[in-house]
Amino acid sequence: MKKISESAVRRLSLYLRLLQEADAAGAETISSGQLAERGGTTSAQVRKDLSLFGSFGKRGLGYSVQELLGRIREILGLQKTWRVALVGAGKLGSALFSYRDFEARGFHIRAVFDSDPRKVGTTWGGLTVCADEEMERTLADEQVDMAILAVPADAAQQVADRIVAAGVRGILNFAPVRLKVPRGVALKNVDVTLELEGLSFALNPR
Amino acid sequence: MKKISESAVRRLSLYLRLLQEADAAGAETISSGQLAERGGTTSAQVRKDLSLFGSFGKRGLGYSVQELLGRIREILGLQKTWRVALVGAGKLGSALFSYRDFEARGFHIRAVFDSDPRKVGTTWGGLTVCADEEMERTLADEQVDMAILAVPADAAQQVADRIVAAGVRGILNFAPVRLKVPRGVALKNVDVTLELEGLSFALNPR
DNA sequence: TCGTGTGAACGAATTCACAGCG
DNA sequence: CGCTGTGAATTCGTTCACACGA
Lengths: 206, 206
Description:
Chain A starts with 5 loop residues before the first helix and ends with a helix. The first copy, chain A, is 44% helix and 18% strand. In chain A, α1 runs antiparallel to α4 and α2 packs across α3. Chain A is globular and about 60 Å long. Chain A contains nine helices and nine strands. In chain A, strands 5-6-4-3-7-8-9 form a seven-stranded mixed beta sheet. By secondary structure, chain A is α/β, with parallel strands linked by helices. Chain A folds into two domains: 70 residues, Winged helix-like DNA-binding domain superfamily/Winged helix DNA-binding domain (Arc Repressor Mutant, subunit A, Orthogonal Bundle), CATH 1.10.10; 113 residues, NAD(P)-binding Rossmann-like Domain (Rossmann fold). At the A-B interface, α1, α5, β8 and α9 of A face α1, α5, β8 and α9 of B.
C-alpha cells in the first residue's frame, strides 16, 4: 500500500468532521469543492486524499455523505472503541477528562492515574483515580490501547517508558518534551508553548 | 526575505527549548549534531534552519549556547512580552491559565473573558474574569496582541470575529472548528480529537 | 581536524489540467 | 454539463556532500 502522509491523515480527520456537520444539516451528497471550501483546502487536494484509499465518488454528483462518513471512519480505524488511559489528574487532565466529546468519537477513558496521594481514590465520573504504582497492572487489565500524558515535563519520559513497557502502543503527549519511544509506538505531541511561539513569529515584524 | 516554512519555525521553537536545557546543564557550546539528536532531526536540518536567518556558528566548534538562545528568541519575536487574552473560563481555560510556564516565556495573560454570569467577577490569580460584553473595550484597553480561544465549538467563530474586529492579530484556537479569519491574522489550532484520530489511524492494522 | 554553511540532488506533497463517466 | 479520478508538472522541503574557516 501507498505511503500516507501525516498531513493527509489530519485532513481526513477534518473531512470527517465536516461530513458530520453536513450530515447534521441534512445533506445527502457533497462535492470535493464543498469539502475543500469548508476545510480550507482545494478540491484537488480533497480528491487526491480520498483517492489514496479508493474511488468513493460519483462523477457529476460528488460523494454520498453517508457512504463517505463510513469510509473515512473505516480508514481512520474509528469503528472500534479505543481504550484510553489518562495519566496525570491535574488541571489539564481534569479538563481533558471532562471533555466528553472523546467518548462520542470512540475514545473511551478506562483509567486515570496520578502520583499525588491526595488525588488517588477520588472518583471522577464513575472512575476511581489510581495510584501510580498500579499503572502497569491496570493498563494490562484494561487492555489500554493508548494513553494521554498530562504530567509535568520532568516526569514525562519516565511515565512514557513505563506505559510503553506495559504494552501501550499510542501516546498523546501534552508535556513540553520530545519523548523517545521505540519504533512501533505512535506518538503525537500537543505543545501549547510551541504554538504560541509560532504566533509570536507570525506577528513579529520582520 | 526568504519564505520560512511552518515546520522550520516549529523546529526553531524546539531548538530554543533544547538550548535552554543545555544552558541549564551548563553547556557553553553546542553542535548541530547535538541539537539534532536531542530534537529528533538531522544535523543538516538544524544547519539549514539556522542558515535561513544567518550564520551563527563557528566552524569546528558549533554554536555558542548563549548567542544562539538570543538569536532564536530574536527570530521568534520573544524579546517583547506578548499581551494575551484568554477567552473562555471553563475547565480548559482554567488549566491553561494556571499553566504558568507561559509567563516565563513572555506570554502575559492580561484578561480573561467568559459569558457565564456566575464566573464573571470572580478572581483568577489577581485577574478579574470579565463579561463577554466588555471584550471589545478591554481588548483595546489592554492592547492585547493574541487571544487563546477556549470556548465551545458553536461559539468559536462568533468570538473569533469579535476579537479580530477588536484588533487582535493572533489566535490560538482550541475549539474543534476551522475558523475563518481575514488575511493578516495568524491562526493556530490545537485539536485534540484530531490527534487522537491520528493515533487511531497509526494503530489501526492495515 | 571538526563542524559550519550551502549549492546541488533528491524526494515528497500540492496543484494543474484534462479525460472519462454519470 | 458537472464533478471525479489521476497522470504530469510544479512547488516545497529535506538530505547529501563538500569547500571552507576556526
